[in-house]
Amino acid sequence: MRNPNTSSSSLSFVAAKSQQQPQQHQQPAQRSTAATGEPLSEFGREMQAGLSRTPRSISPKFFYDAAGSQLFDRICELPEYYPTRTELRILGECAGEIAGQIGPNAEIVEFGAGSLTKVRLLLDALETPKRYLPIDISGEHLEAAAERLKADYPKLVVQPIAADYTMPLVLPAPMAGAGRRVGFFPGSTIGNFEPDEALAFLQLAARMLRGGGLLIGVDLVKDPARLHAAYNDAQGVTGEFNLNLLRRANAELDADFDLDGFTHAAFYNAPRQRIEMHLVSRRAQNVSLKGEQFGFEEGETIHTEYSHKFTVEGLRALAVRAGFRPGAVWTDPEKLFSVHWLLA
Ligand SMILES: C[S@@+](CC[C@H](N)C(=O)[O-])C[C@H]1O[C@@H](n2cnc3c(N)ncnc32)[C@H](O)[C@@H]1O
Question: What's residue 24's pLDDT?
């Protein structure tokens, strides 16, 4: 169920975050109308604010329109992109043990559910799962994936929720006879948050899942060359995914980004243990968005995504701070990726 008060909650989340930003970030006030006076969508407000601040940045959640979700699915198939196949392998090999921790008649709430691929491994191993509530911001893609899942699991109650999981959500009351309510947060999507946001999200999840647990997939710190390759694939799909943000702004916000005028850049910031993804202006240029002009110098960037990497101990310590009791952890033999069971 969607929080009816989404837009004001969104602003309060952004405000809470901005108080903890380093001083060098200049935070412009968000405007609710365009230069033309017409109301702005959340994407429009955040794009306008993101292009007005120094340095420029926008939340990665706006990657995911239907085209962005499809591009992400292509990333998951890339030879360089080890996280998806490693997590699938861990889930496949350890599904029996994971199901034992979760118990019978569970209700699974998935955050950022995407194409609903990984949950199938859990559903196949769980004893009589009752209900599945996948949450995703990419509504059209979610609906289509949920229809496919319903057809394959006719006994399971599947209720997709098109919503932003950083907002307080009112979930449906547990079904009669339901077992644990368990959150599922695979794909190391937790790494897209800044550290203070990751803590805030886990605190929200711990409250939402009290009495149940959270199964979370987390990418581990590793050789920077391997990380660099994963976010700079030879086929250029990650670059297309990054540039899709500008394509989306052109389609939805009357923007005129020249897609050949910007290029994808991703690098590992070792002290911060994160991949940073940016769109770099190839030349000095002006861009118009909803009637407002934004000038770019050659080489100026829009920051579009962080992908923080964790140690097993670091994630467990964060979970404790958020109010979870860490349980079992499963990893692959190369220790590329980890899946954690956290009791709420
Ligand atoms: C990195 S992908 C992971 C997809 C899938 N869970 C997996 O493991 O392959 C992130 C997913 O989270 C969704 N997403 C990102 N930010 C979101 C937000 N704030 N609220 C809801 N969904 C979000 C995206 O649409 C996308 O499907």
Answer: 46
How far does residue 294's CA lie from ligand 1's centre (Å)?
A: 29
138 Cα–ligand 1 center, Å: 8
Q: For residue 64, which atom of ligand 1 is closest to its CA?
A: 25
Per-residue model confidence as pLDDT tens digits over 204-237: 999 999 999 999 999 999 999 999 999 999 999 9
Q: What is the mean pLDDT of the chain?
A: 91
Per 3-state DSSP, what percentage of the chain is helix, strand, and coil (rounded to 5)? 40, 25, 35
Domains of the chain: 75-222+310-343 (3.40.50.150)
Question: What is the DSSP track for 225-252?
Answer: HHHHHHTS-TT-HHHHHHHHHHHHHHHH
The residues lining ligand 1, judged by C-beta closer than 6 Å to any ligand atom, are 61, 64, 69, 72, 76, 84, 112-114, 118, 135-138, 164-166, 186-187, 189
Model pLDDT for residues 110-141, shown as the tens digit of each residue: 999 999 999 999 999 999 999 999 999 999 99
Output the pTM of the full model: 0.90
Q: Which residues of 262-300 are buried (b: 16+ CB within 10 A; e: fewer)?
A: bebbbebeeeebbbbbbbbbeeebebebbeeebebeeeb
